[in-house]
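---------- Forwarded message ----------

FYI, see the Haloacid dehalogenase-like hydrolase domain-containing protein 3 record below. Original note from H. follows.
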Amino acid sequence: AMLRLRLLTWDVKDTLLRLRQPVGESYAAEARAHGVRVQPEALSRSFREAYGAQSRRFPNYGRGWGLSSQQWWVDVVKQTFRLSGVQEDGVLTLMAENLYRNFCSARNWELLPGASETLSQCCQRGFHMGVISNFDNRLEKVLSQCNLQHHFEFILTSEDAGFTKPDRRIFEKALRLSGVPPEQAAHVGDDYTRDYRAARAVGMHGFLLRAAGLGEELEVPPEHVLPSLSHLLTRIEK
């Protein structure tokens, strides 16, 4: 192989796993179970607003602000419903705690095409493997519910690390955990800034998962672009 890689690190959301349905649909279904009618589209809009405001106020799931990530999320969910007109405190708390739990489960997540096969093949070829994700500490449970956890030697979330991609320190922490120098490591993700550019800034290789025609204006050599995960090994080995 041209690239002498020993370590592959992976983003998770929209790289290996994606939500089965829009957030608004999941929230609306939870509301219906409590006899509350809210439009999924309204909830999706409210969610973006509540999530954005909470992220600006308390970045990285409230780490360093004296909030647990569970409290951080419960506040986001309650605010999402309040912005959509649901005010009753008891039902808000109940729905928020249920939704926090539900998003741990495989019911809400599906694998991207080629994810399982690609991870298995990479393990068979002897790569060290780890996760670098801007996720809270539920990620290990999500990966284990989706039967992916066993592929990885470490799972590094921004909540654990205290740094959020594209901060170079979360990548440096992953390199330390694996003991592999950056030039023998590659990161795979779907976000140009947080995954591809950030990994390359610490001297790692980068592969950007991109549907055809998406983001072609970006300065990414075609051999670093993956139209699907199944393209990864051919890119590495050619």
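H. also flagged this: DSSP finds ten helices and eight strands in the chain.
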